[in-house]
């Protein structure tokens, strides 16, 4: 009888663990298992030290503003968070407005497809994804438009993940991934039929520098669309709560400093672009983009327990627990920013590179 009790208890625990990890967890749906969580290109034993190094940047805020320090800063961040993002969120590292009757994945895909639709490119066109992550948007856009997409990311681990996903999706001939800095891109002038960036240029210390590079590689007459992270007209630098929320978003997302919505078109024009359209895609009638963050609180605690256990067993690096907690805190700041209306991750700007250099501002 005692043996039977022990056997049933063990079976129940094993079944519960499987349900906890695989059924409730997002790993099977997203392609990354909890037991595979890592620190990206960082050796397992160095993850915790690199997490501390990441936070050290914020004790020296002026260092983050220096262009030469940004690659290491952002690269460290994405080594730390990529596996957790992919496991808990998906292969598209961005937000989208929630759509009644549509799943988060469907809403995300529609948000991505809208970007390439705005570019008005034809099948076979060569377009650039500036800041491609593990390539979720790239694959959706390639499949939807028939365009050939070249993605660039500073993080080598993301390059390898994106290439793996591209091959699994049967899009490796249509999607190319390059490891590089979008402030100094390894592409020739006037070589792309269109460019898009989805919540990526916020990592640049100066927007003018990344916009200048995009302008350089874009063919004359072609379009560029970007979804920007910005503070809105409701933000006040005199409001202590507003400042706390924005600084919390910056610290938890490797941002050298969030820009005001007023800066985006001004910078685009300064580097030579013609601004065709500008709109905050988060405003009504769009439904809240932060709903998914609020709905994920229970999943966070479930996942945090799992990550803690895996780290205790030595399966996951110890620093992963700290990273996971940091992302939860950041999710709260993002939610507060969205609910108060002082922050948006989808300030859309659509620009055209003039046919001639006459559009370039001489200032």
TrEMBL record:
Pathway linked to the protein: Steroid biosynthesis; sterol biosynthesis
Q: Which PROSITE patterns match?
A: SAM_MT_ERG6_SMT
Coiled-coil region list = none
Supply the alphabetized keyword list.
Lipid biosynthesis, Lipid metabolism, Methyltransferase, S-adenosyl-L-methionine, Steroid biosynthesis, Steroid metabolism, Sterol biosynthesis, Sterol metabolism, Transferase
* GO BP term (any one): methylation
Record flagged with keyword Methyltransferase? yes
Q: Per the record, what are the reactions this protein catalyses?
A: 24-methylidenelophenol + S-adenosyl-L-methionine = (Z)-24-ethylidenelophenol + S-adenosyl-L-homocysteine + H(+)
Instruction: Name the top EC class.
Output: transferase
Tell me, what's a Pfam family for it? Sterol_MT_C
This molecule's function is given as: Catalyzes the methyl transfer from S-adenosyl-methionine to the methylene group of 24-methylene lophenol to form 24-ethylidene lophenol.
Matching PANTHER family, A to Z? 24-METHYLENESTEROL C-METHYLTRANSFERASE 2 (PTHR44742:SF2), PTHR44742
Instruction: Indicate the family of this protein.
Output: Belongs to the class I-like SAM-binding methyltransferase superfamily. Erg6/SMT family.
The protein in question is named Methyltransferase
What is the native source organism of this protein? Forsythia ovata
């Amino acid at each position: 009888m005692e043996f039977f009790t022990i056997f049933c208890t063990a079976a129940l625990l094993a079944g519960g663990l499987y349900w906890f990890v695989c059924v409730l967890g997002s790993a099977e749906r997203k392609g990354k298992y909890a037991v595979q969580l890592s620190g990206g290109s960082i050796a397992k034993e160095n993850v915790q030290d690199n997490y501390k190094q990441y936070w050290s940047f914020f004790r020296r805020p002026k260092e983050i503003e220096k262009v030469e320090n940004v690659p290491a800063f952002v690269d460290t961040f994405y080594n730390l968070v990529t596996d957790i993002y992919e496991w808990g969120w998906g292969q598209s590292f961005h937000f989208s407005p929630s759509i009644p009757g549509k799943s988060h994945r469907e809403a995300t895909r529609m948000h991505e497809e809208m970007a390439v639709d705005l570019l008005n490119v034809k099948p076979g066109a060569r377009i650039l994804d500036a800041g491609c992550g593990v390539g979720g948007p790239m694959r959706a856009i390639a499949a939807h438009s028939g365009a050939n997409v070249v993605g660039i990311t500073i993080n080598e681990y993301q390059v390898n993940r994106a290439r793996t996903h591209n091959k699994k999706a049967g899009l490796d001939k249509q999607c190319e991934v390059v490891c590089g800095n979008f402030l100094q891109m390894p592409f020739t002038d006037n070589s792309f039929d269109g460019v898009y960036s989805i919540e990526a240029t916020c990592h640049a210390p100066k927007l003018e520098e990344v916009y200048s590079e995009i302008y350089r590689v874009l063919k004359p007459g072609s379009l560029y669309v970007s979804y920007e992270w910005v503070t809105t007209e409701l933000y006040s630098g005199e409001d202590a709560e507003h400042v706390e929320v924005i600084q919390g978003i910056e610290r938890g997302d490797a941002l050298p400093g969030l820009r005001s919505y007023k800066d985006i078109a001004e910078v685009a024009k300064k580097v030579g672009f013609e601004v065709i359209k500008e709109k905050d895609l988060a405003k009504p009638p769009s439904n809240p983009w932060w709903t998914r963050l609020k709905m994920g609180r229970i999943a966070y605690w479930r996942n945090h327990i799992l990550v803690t256990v895996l780290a205790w067993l030595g399966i996951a690096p110890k620093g992963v627990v700290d990273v996971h907690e940091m992302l939860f805190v950041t999710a709260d700041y993002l939610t507060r920013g969205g609910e108060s209306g002082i922050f948006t991750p989808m300030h859309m700007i659509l620009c055209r590179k003039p046919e001639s250099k006459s559009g370039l501002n001489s200032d």
